[in-house]
Amino acid sequence: MFLYISRRLLYAIFVLFGVATVVFFIARITGDPVSIMLPPDATLEQENQLRSSLGLDKPLIQQYVIFMGNLLQLDLGTSLRYGESTLSLISERMPATIQLGVAAMVFSLSIAVPAGIITAIKRGKWLEKLVMSTVIFLQSVPVFWVGILLVLIFSVTLGWLPTGGVGTAWHLILPAIALGTHLLALVARLLRASLVESLESDYIRTAKAKGLLPKKVVGKHAMRNSLLPVVTIVGLEVGALLGGSVVTETVFAWPGVGQLLILAIYNRDFPLVQAIIIILAGIFVVVNLLVDILYAVIDPRIKYS
């Protein structure tokens, strides 16, 4: 296990190196931030002076070498727009994004797991058709559409919940539902398919023949073997939740990293865009490593070498 984790950490370094390289060059082709930072009547001398102070007058390869050197020292640069350390700006916003992501995960799994179990047990019944039709519909609609629809129904029409912003737990409900809808549908469908396959296995028939209660057959035997694909997709969807938060935070004016990324892209704030994407990629890599380790906990037959 130690060798496996060490190898995966080495791969993670190469992945983050690749992400940093791609983000650096893509950010540079989006446009010149100097044109946004200065007023329209700025002189050429003022533009050159600002470009020189930002280090944008250097050749692109030299800028890349400086960027990677700073990255090796865990220095992700200073925001061009705010004049502050990118790490401090992200650390201020990250708690809100984590809070939203955790709430969306709790919401989706609390509904998806019972829905997957019920539809697997009630195969061919009207309840299964109703639940699966709803799940497929939820998986088909985009996050921003769900968010706008929730605002129209529960905020504008009924007046039950705030339209956006932060302050109380009520502000978290609508963005968490909008963000967690896709994961809910995905986990419910995957768990149902995995459970149906497990319930038709020989060891389940043996357990039933031994007279075990249906709850024990499903909960102890079938569920454990059905959790591996669910854990996999949940681990992968952590990245999707972080990415989806960009849209959700914009719709609901949620002050998280996603909203900060949109502002950074709009302002062509290279260092801030690079820092946010690298940190999100790092979180994604770490979560997937934890998911791989969790496999061995769920299924002791899995060995890493």
TrEMBL record:
Q: What is its main location?
A: membrane
Q: Report the subcellular localization.
A: Cell membrane
Database matches in CDD domains: TM_PBP2
What this protein is called in its record is ABC transporter permease
Recorded hits in InterPro entries, A to Z, give: BPD_transp_1_N, MetI-like, MetI-like_sf
Any transmembrane segments, and where? 9-29, 96-118, 130-156, 168-191, 227-252, 272-298
Signal peptide residues are none
Q: How does it sit in the membrane?
A: Multi-pass membrane protein
Organism, as annotated: Oceanobacillus jeddahense
Q: Which PROSITE patterns match?
A: ABC_TM1 (PS50928)
Q: Which PANTHER family match?
A: DIPEPTIDE TRANSPORT SYSTEM PERMEASE PROTEIN DPPB-RELATED
What the record says about family reads: Belongs to the binding-protein-dependent transport system permease family.
Q: What keywords were assigned to this record?
A: Cell membrane, Membrane, Transmembrane, Transmembrane helix, Transport
